[in-house]
C-alpha cells in the first residue's frame, strides 16, 4: 500500500472533501486522524473507514485554537511515532458580495479566518516534519490566474491567499525534506447539497471541463493518496490539476 505506516491528520474530516481525503489515505494504509468540531460527523466517517478495513480515530477541536492544535499535533506524533501528512480543508466563510459593495470588516474577517486556520495547522505539522526530515502538507482548492468569473467575492481571494502560503511554506520546508502541494479543482459536484436548485451549478462545472465530466470525491481521495506517497517524492511547490481540464495552461 502507498501509505503504509504513515500518519495522516485531516482537518475538516467530517465534510465531503475531508472525508474523501481521509478515505483515500486510509485505503492506502495510512493511520487517519479525523479532526473537526462536530463529533457525530467525524464518528460516521471513522466508522466507514473502519468498516472498509482502515484505521481511523477522531479528535474534536477548533482549528483556530492555537494551543489545542499544537497539543493535538504533539500528541499524535508522540503516540504514532510520526506525523507524515497534514491537510486542512476547513471551508472559509464565503461572502459572494461584489467587492465594490463588500463591507471592509466582513472581508477582513473572512480572509483572516482562512489564513489563520491554514497557518496554525501547517505550523503544528511542520514542527514535527522538520524534526523527522520528511512529510507532506496538502492544500485543496487552488488558484487559477486566468480566472475571469465575477461575483466570487472572498472565495477565490481566499484560495489565492492559501496558495501564497503554499508557495512560501514550500520554500521554507523544502530543505528539510517536506513537500507542499495543492490539489487544484474546478469544483466537485458531489460535495454540493443534494437539492434541485443546485443541479444547474453542478452541470456547469462539468460543462466547463475538457472531459465533459467533473472530478468525483473518489478521484479526490485517490489522487491525494498518490501525491502524499513516496511515489510522488519529486513533487513540491506546485498544484496538481484535478479539474478535468477546467483549468489549463
Automatic annotation (TrEMBL):
Keywords: Oxidoreductase. Signal peptide: none annotated. The keyword Oxidoreductase applies. GO terms for molecular function: oxidoreductase activity. Belongs to the short-chain dehydrogenases/reductases (SDR) family. It comes from the Bacteria. This is NAD(P)-dependent dehydrogenase, short-chain alcohol dehydrogenase family. SUPFAM superfamilies: NAD(P)-binding Rossmann-fold domains (SSF51735). It comes from Amycolatopsis arida.
Amino acid at each position: 500500500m502507498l501509505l503504509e505506516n504513515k500518519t495522516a491528520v485531516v482537518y475538516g474530516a467530517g465534510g465531503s472533501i475531508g472525508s474523501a481525503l481521509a478515505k483515500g489515505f486510509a485505503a492506502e494504509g495510512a493511520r487517519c486522524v479525523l479532526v473537526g468540531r462536530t463529533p457525530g460527523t467525524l464518528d460516521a466517517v471513522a466508522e466507514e473507514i473502519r468498516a472498509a478495513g482502515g484505521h481511523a480515530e477522531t479528535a474534536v477541536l477548533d482549528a483556530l485554537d492555537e494551543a489545542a492544535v499544537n497539543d493535538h499535533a504533539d500528541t499524535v506524533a508522540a503516540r504514532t511515532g510520526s506525523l507524515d501528512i497534514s491537510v486542512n480543508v476547513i471551508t472559509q466563510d464565503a461572502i459572494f458580495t461584489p467587492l465594490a459593495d463588500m463591507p471592509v470588516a466582513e472581508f477582513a474577517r473572512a480572509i483572516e479566518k482562512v489564513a489563520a486556520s491554514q497557518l496554525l495547522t501547517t505550523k503544528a505539522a511542520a514542527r514535527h516534519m522538520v524534526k523527522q526530515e520528511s512529510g507532506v502538507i496538502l492544500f485543496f482548492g487552488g488558484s487559477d490566474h486566468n480566472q475571469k468569473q465575477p461575483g466570487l467575492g472572498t472565495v477565490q481571494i481566499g484560495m489565492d491567499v492559501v496558495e501564497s502560503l503554499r508557495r512560501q511554506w514550500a520554500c521554507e520546508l523544502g530543505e528539510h525534506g517536506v513537500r507542499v502541494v495543492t490539489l487544484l479543482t474546478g469544483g466537485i459536484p458531489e460535495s454540493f447539497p443534494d437539492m434541485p436548485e443546485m443541479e444547474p451549478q453542478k452541470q456547469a462545472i462539468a460543462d466547463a471541463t475538457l472531459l465533459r465530466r467533473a472530478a468525483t470525491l473518489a478521484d479526490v481521495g485517490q489522487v491525494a493518496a498518490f501525491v502524499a506517497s513516496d511515489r510522488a517524492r519529486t513533487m513540491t511547490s506546485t498544484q496538481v490539476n484535478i479539474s478535468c481540464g477546467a483549468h489549463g495552461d
